[in-house]
Amino acid sequence: MSEDGDTSQHVVEQVSPEPESGLESDDSPEVEVQVPPQDSGAPFVVGVDREAVMRRREVVRTVERRGAWITLAIGVVGIAAALYALLAFRGSGMWPFAILLILAMIPLVLSTVMVYRLQAERQQWYDSNELQPVAMRMSLKGLELACDGAAYPVVLQWQTVRGFRQQKLLGQYVLDLDLVPGVSATTAGVRGLDQAPVRSVVKPNPLLRPTGLFLVKALDQPVHIIDEAMKHFSGGTAQVRR
Prior knowledge:
Blueprint: H1 3-15, E1 44-47, H2 50-88, H3 95-128, E2 134-138, E3 143-145, E4 154-156, E5 161-169, E6 172-179, E7 190-191, H4 196-202, E8 214-215, H5 223-234, E9 239-241
Parallel strand pairs: 5-9
Antiparallel strand pairs: 1-2, 2-3, 3-4, 4-7, 5-6, 6-8
Helix pairs in contact: 2-3
């Protein structure tokens, strides 16, 4: 065999070595494997600013009382006008309209009593409980809300929640809870909606002015981060609507 042939065979062996079958080569390059991130299941927690909440409580208290006195004044004027019509126009056939006017004004008067009763219950709870440092918790299981004045948190599964509505009330931006139509305190997976402080905020009486569930500037997380977390944990079914 020629010398050139021996040289060619030697080159081939250096370029294309064949590892033994069933064994890994120790000189093979390492391959970096990318592992997709997995959800640890840790909840997303939104805290509150104590001073902002205290100021908000005073604003809500003042506005509710002001509205209660306005509705009381309207109710008293309406009832007085109806009674005057009954006495001044006897026999004119106006008594059915006067009775209807009185019946229409009675709910306005009762709403004032309801406001003061609600505020008394709320203040009693304030005096006996410390302000909760957490406004809400989100997890894959659902949404937990600490409504101001409620004895225990509101717990909602994601299929019952559409998210929050951000709107401006009393000169400040607030977040209002947006539930799926038909959801109530007796819906499966719902806890805490039957509390009076929650009902006055989440589903306010038509005679009461809404005050909002959470004051935006009192939360320690911006709205867009809360929106992203809500979309993540709910699978995209809940969000913050503006």
